[in-house]
Amino acid sequence: MKLTVLMTLAMLATSTTATTAAQQHARSVHVRTTADSSRVERQRTANLKSFRGIAAKLNTTPAALQYAFESARAANPKLSRGNFVAANVLADNLGAQHPNVTTGAILSGLQNGKNLGQTLQSLGLSGAEAKQARRAADHDTKAANKLVKDADKRARQDNRSH
Q: Which of 29, 53, 78, 158 could form a disulfide with 148 if both were Cys (CB 3.0 to 4.6 A apart)?
């Protein structure tokens, strides 16, 4: 009888310990998932904010650019935000003189392992034209971001003075 009671208590203790461990694991997974999702949401918000300057230059919205970036990143996980922005600016700057230079064509070249210069050359630009176009795109991107940064700074100053 004592042996049966002791075995029952031991099994109950083991069961309780296993259940408690499983519950603690479930809680930690939930906390990690919640932390990961809030981290992802913060990153998404930061990306949306960072697209404001270039979106204005490209006559689109930051949300549209962010969605396009996420879609392009799904197709090419190695795609950086900088290369994505450069592809859009290059296509915008060069599209009139070189109709085959599109955002999609540039992103495709990047996905195939080429860099921006190689991609532009494969689309018909010379090495010098590609280098000049990349420099112009970098300048345009910095100028667009500076406009937004300056506007934010003025808004903060106006808020402090009121």
A: 53
